[in-house]
Amino acid sequence: MNKCLVVTLLLLCPLLVPLTEAGCKIMVKVRSQTKNKFQLQIFIPSIQAKSERVTFTEPEEKKIEVAGENCAEKKWVFRTWKPDGAGDWIGAKQDEARVDGNGWVRLVVDDELRPRFMDRLGVACGESQWLCG
């Protein structure tokens, strides 16, 4: 192997390690586009975390911050609930995707209560046709 190439690789390797071990820090901007009451919760199994159930009663935006190592090791689960009329909540829609990065993503919920990504910056999404777009 070329001596110059070996020296270059040895110099660059320490610079690449922090990039691969940085983990994720994602701001999920959840936007309700419905007048229907619903709840949303995000499960991130690879970092053994979940958000609180966030309740929406009108079109509005709320933020959920996610941070950890190896966020994309397992698929994230995005779940919505709707009121059942008796004061309890029942499952409405659910989708899964691999999500990772450092940035933000806008998650939109419409009248069908199906979560989907509208736009994102610095965040990768895969393995979900509906959620990732």
Range of helix content: 10-25%
Largest sheet: 8 strands, mixed
CATH topology: Immunoglobulin-like
Shape: globular
Oligomer: single chain
Tell me the series of helices and strands, N- to C-terminal.
HEEEEEEEEH
Taking all Cα atoms into account, the compactness measure Rg is 19 Å
Quickly give the structural class: alpha+beta
Distance between the termini: 44 Å
What count of structural domains? 1
Q: Helix tally? A: 2
Q: In percent terms, what proportion of residues is strand?
A: over 45%
Number of strands: 8
Task: Supply database-style keywords.
133 residues, Immunoglobulin-like, 2 helices, 8 strands, 17% helix
What does this structure look like?
Helices cover 17% and strands 53% of the residues. The chain has helices at residues 3-20, 129-132; strands at residues 24-32, 38-44, 49-50, 54-56, 61-68, 76-83, 89-109, 115-126. The model is unreliable at 5-10 and 13-20 (pLDDT under 50). It has one domain: Immunoglobulin-like. The chain is an alpha+beta fold and 133 residues long. Strands 1, 2, 3, 4, 5, 6, 7 and 8 form an eight-stranded mixed β-sheet that branches.
Task: Produce a short descriptive summary.
This protein has 133 residues and is of the alpha+beta class. It is 17% helix and 53% strand. A hairpin with a 4-residue loop joins strand 2 and strand 3.
Task: Reconstruct the topology from this structure.
Elements: H1 3-20, E1 24-32, E2 38-44, E3 49-50, E4 54-56, E5 61-68, E6 76-83, E7 89-109, E8 115-126, H2 129-132
Parallel strand pairs: 1-7
Antiparallel strand pairs: 1-5, 2-3, 2-4, 2-6, 6-7, 7-8
